[in-house]
Amino acid sequence: MPRIKVTGYLDTDDLDPEHVDTSHEMGLSTAGYEHMIGADGSRGLGLDDVEFQIED
Fold it and tell me: What DSSP string runs through 11-30?
């Protein structure tokens, strides 16, 4: 079954300062990543300019 790649942007103005780490390649601190994803991986990300692309 193919996968769907989802690409979007997070506006850092909408994040708590302790959740942003511009020195990390991901742009989020560990606390920010955990906040965005949630403990069970089910939290919505609230992305802007979302794009979907099907991949094999």
Answer: -GGGS-GGGB-TTSTTSB-H
Dihedral over alpha carbons 29, 17, 47, 35 (to 10 degrees): 50
Please give the Cα distance from 39 to 43 (Å, whole number): 8
Which residue's structure tokens are 């300019």?
Answer: 49
How far does the chain reach from its first CA to its final CA, in angstroms? 7
52 in Cβ contact with 5 (< 8 Å)? yes
- Band the pLDDT of 46: cuts 50, 70, 90: confident
| Digit-coded pLDDT (tens) for 2-32 | 999 989 988 888 889 999 999 999 899 999 8
